[in-house]
Amino acid sequence: MDKKQWLNNFIKENGRQPSPEEFIQAKNNGFESKKPQQNSADNQQLKEWVATFTKENGRQPSIDEVQGHKNGLDQPRAKAVAIPSTKPAQTVKKVARTQPKSKKQLVIWTSGIVLALALLGGIGFGYHYYSYDASYQRALKLLASHNPAEYQKMASWSDSNKKLTKDELKPLADYVADKQLNQSELKSLLKNDSAGVSFAQDGSNWLLFPRYVIKLQPVNLRVTTNQSNLKVTVNGQTLTSDTDSSYEKLIRHQAPGLYSFTAQGSLNGRTVKTSVNNYFGGRNTESVDLDIETLSFTVRSNLNDAKVYVGDTAVGTIVDGKANLTDIPVSSGAEVYVKKTSNGNKVESSHKKLTSISNGDEITLNAKGMLTNDDAQKTLATMADVLTYYAHKEKNSSDVSSAFLDGTSNHAYRDFCEMIDHNLHSAKRNADDIDFGDVKVKNVDSTGKNKADVTFEIQEDFNYSSKTDSDKQSSGRLRQRYLLIAHMAYDSDSKKWLVESIDSNQKKLSESDDVR
Hints:
The protein is an alpha+beta fold. 32% of the residues lie in helices and 34% in strands. The protein has four domains: 3-83, no CATH class; 130-216, no CATH class; 219-364, no CATH class; 373-513, Roll (Nuclear Transport Factor 2, Chain: A). It has helices at residues 3-14, 20-28, 40-57, 63-71, 88-97, 99-129, 132-144, 148-151, 166-179, 183-190, 373-393, 411-425, and strands at 155-157, 197-205, 209-216, 219-225, 230-234, 237-240, 247-254, 257-267, 270-280, 285-289, 292-300, 307-310, 313-317, 322-331, 335-342, 345-348, 352-353, 362-364, 433-448, 451-464, 476-491, 496-502, 507-513. Strands 12, 13, 15, 16 and 17 form a five-stranded antiparallel sheet that branches. A hairpin with a 4-residue loop joins strand 21 (476-491) and strand 22 (496-502). The chain starts with a helix and ends with a strand.
């Protein structure tokens, strides 16, 4: 068979032009047809199949695809195994379908960046918020609130790291409130391990930031008394209603703070009450001695009209600088002190343990930062001297600043100088000179920290010579004695108590006139 015959037969049998590969293969075979003759029905079916294949796939089938169809007409058509199209138009469609994915990726990237920035900001804030300095300031603020519920936010036991209850924290809050601790004193409390309170790191927050807490060292309180039939209480709670003569009770695991113990009952037919009102903390175990004793002693103090306390029981009042206490039932473990409230300010003296006091003793319990009678006497005596100097020299003494606050600018000093000038130069009869002296302090009343009112007597002598009385040529001395009140203040620069002002309420006590 020649080439032309082969080509006609191929088209007739396959319904299409041969591919270059099919043509070369036939040429190599001498254009001989090895395929069996098909009947007209098969040829018609083949033509229909080729037409359907071309329509569905956009191309004519290969010779292998045709041969496969001939070998099994009942098999699925070539559409099921068609090679995916690689036309440019279809590629463009695929690119177009990927556009929404790019926008989604952009949203994801943007969200990731925002989250990363927020995370970094949160970490930065966390390191500041949980830093030592910031935590320390929060601890000071919590302590100053006097509120056990606030204390719970940062307080924990030093031995177990567990949180404390509000009831457990109340003694510490009571102590801070009772002592009216200022910012500086609160800082000292947090740094004073001997008080059982400290500020330290304890683990971390969120696994990243340090956690600082107020650590409280637990203390055991051993309560004892030597008397029977006493009711013993602590902070208002009853420990026992009936003691024996060797009563002992150990109260375990208490927080540092202010504890008020009382033992009350009958002793030798007389109702007695003793108490201990102290800060306990900083040791594993502390003793609370409620033994009953009686003492008679005298207390002197610079807090006039203040109450004398043994524990939390008032046992006397300071009058004219002292209080005589007789047969006072007290606890040998308690302390005696003087306390008063003036103008809303609580003022308290130093404390003295009763174990150091014997019957008939006289003790002095002055308040720090309070004016003593001796200091008031010295300042007012200096005041009299500088006034006398001005009356004799008519110029300011170099010691004015040792008596008057703000020196020669002090209003009280200037008022005295005006009075002196008037009596020397413009009075009905002018004095030759004036003497001030014989100062006697009658009372010192503390009105607050570094403030006091001093009631005192002062003598003023107006000396007259005959030259000021041309008619009668009389001479002599007019002596007047006044009761004055000096408002005094402590000057931290000079470290002295000075006269701030003189009260306008003055009283003339006496007058003697020997001018003849």
